[in-house]
Design brief:
single chain; alpha+beta; Peptide Deformylase; five-stranded antiparallel sheet; 9 strands; about 30% strand
């Protein structure tokens, strides 16, 4: 089932998510719905707060990045097969010199800005079967993980912008929160009661 994506301005996007257990109600269906919602919106990642749930869960399928012609064959192959469910994730280490990458977000449509992040990370999480993993990632996959991980900590990519950049996009963000934007996927706006 395709769920509405919560738009910028909704308080759920600023909450730190709660850990969940394998007894979380209808978890398999929720994960399936999150992937379906993400694909419908042409995203590569989706966190539970973006569908209105303040829990520590996000999904990623980095395959669309593998079609980027500027990438090496190794990078393309790594990205092509990268589909994961992250539950109760904790980034334990980030390292390297920060690099800029133009990020966007399904909750903040039509806004893209360069965000600086460190290129390597170590993350602990459990998957959909509650099996524990400790993994290291770098490059674009690390970037996608960092972006989605921020969501479960109540952080948006716009929070990482300079005060000047924030002023430049303030009008766009206000319009998004009021539903004054055209998108080709379902959204739920904080200042509108009805669903689209």
């Amino acid at each position: 089932m395709i769920l509405p994506i919560v738009a910028y301005g909704d308080p759920v996007l600023k909450k730190v998510g709660d850990p969940i257990t394998k007894e979380y109600p209808n978890l398999d269906t929720l994960i399936e719905n999150m992937f379906e919602t993400m694909y419908n919106a042409n995203g590569v990642g989706l966190a539970a707060p973006q569908i209105g749930l303040s829990i520590r869960l996000f999904v990623i399928d980095a395959s669309p990045f593998s079609e980027d012609e500027d990438l090496s064959e190794d990078d393309k192959n790594t990205l092509k097969g990268f589909k994961r469910v992250f539950i109760n994730a904790k980034i334990t280490k980030e390292e390297g010199d920060e690099w800029a990458f133009n990020e966007g977000c399904l909750s903040i449509p039509d806004v893209r800005e360069d965000v600086f992040r460190q290129p390597k990370l170590t993350i602990e999480y459990v998957d959909e079967n509650f099996e524990k993993h400790v993994e290291e990632y770098d490059g674009l996959i690390a970037r996608v993980i960092q972006h989605e991980y921020d969501h479960i900590d109540g952080i948006l990519f716009t929070d990482k912008l300079s005060a000047f950049k924030k002023r430049l996009i303030k009008g766009k963000l206000t319009n998004i929160s009021k539903g004054k934007i055209n998108v080709d996927y379902r959204m739920r706006f904080p200042n509108q009661k009805k669903k689209r």
